[in-house]
Amino acid sequence: MLPAAKLLAHQSTSAHIVIIGAGAAGLAMASRLQRSLSGVRITLVGSRERHFYQPGFTLIGAGLWSQQDVVTDTRDWIPADVAWIEADAIAFDPDSQRISLSTGVRLKYDVLVVATGCQLNYGEIEGMSTDLIGQYGIGSIYAGPEAAAGTSRALEQFMARGKGRAIFTLPNTPIKCAGAPLKAIFTSLSRLEETGLREHFQVDFYTPYRHQVFSVPVYNDFVLRRWREQQVRLQDQRHLSAIDPAARVALFRHADGTTERQEFEFIHIVPPMSAPDAVRQSELVWREGEWAGEWLEVDQYSLQHRRYPEVFGIGDVIGTPFGKTAASVKKQAPVLEENILSYLAGRSLTARYNGYTSCPLITGMGRAMLAEFGYGAELMPSFPFISPIEESWAVWVMKEKMLQPAYYAMLNGRV
């Protein structure tokens, strides 16, 4: 049986749908809605001219891919009938169904799709800015392809020392691609082992959580067990709060508010993250609960805003238990498409997102495990021939060779 969104293809409407964010989620929704609706007016808002295949950042940081491997033109992914405004949303007024843009324009909508992605708050770490990445032994794959390449160079310089201390961090906020900090340390460990001098390098991982580096217990236990074998020291219940780049000193804050200074030769920084300020400062943000003041409020199953029914969310910006990966967007997009079509037709919203997310968790060069899970940390394997709790070369090949074409098909609304 065809999905409901396909049965309703070419549903007619005169609505103006505004999509805020021209990243993976926004582009996927623009393609799907343009194909499913006739008579619709779709406006896509986003200022970034280059589109980044963000799952490739870890491979750039590992020294395996180049920056050019992850960069395309945003315009190439926008359907011909979709209007693109190269600007950013600076304020949301959901009561009047208007958005203020960085160009001074106020945009009126009938349906709003918030797909802004998340904001990287490097500035919340005192002394840290993105222009430091690649210098002073500082790495951070999250800031973009240039930063990922700078991370690889910083690690190479650290390796050339023949000894020293490497620190890897995790912030005290939800983050996109929660497996990326683990991929960064695992690929770095492989590179350190290749020097033949692994015993001369000290490696520490700092987490704000107690004995936790990943939210799904089976994968968390695997990682901690593997790190014990690899002599990685876990420093828990503390997070990076400040850095002195020139002195190569990091300041960590404990759960009780006390701080400690730690020296390093290399440090990989994962910044605190949140929804963009325009969302955080609007009525669209969660007002209570664990995501209050930080993330877009939506029903975790329908992806519809809980107070403004004409507003929907998708991707990294939403405040839900899981759902901040490209694989999440792949599962969210058809749900959101079907529910928007139902909303426009005055029907009940019946499509449900089950929290599915996926992370090809690289555990070393040439090996990975396919972590697939959803709400309740329930494992949701897609391939009967791939164990979700075992490492394999096949999953490594999937990560390095196969997922990028599938990602681009998602942008076109094909998968």
TrEMBL record:
Domain of life of the source: Bacteria
Domain FAD/NAD(P)-binding residue range list: 16-129
One Pfam family it belongs to: Pyr_redox_2
Biological processes per GO annotation: sulfide oxidation, using sulfide:quinone oxidoreductase
One term of GO molecular function: FAD binding
SUPFAM superfamilies, A to Z: FAD/NAD(P)-binding domain
The name this protein goes by in its record: NAD(P)/FAD-dependent oxidoreductase
Species per Swiss-Prot/TrEMBL record: Marinobacterium marinum
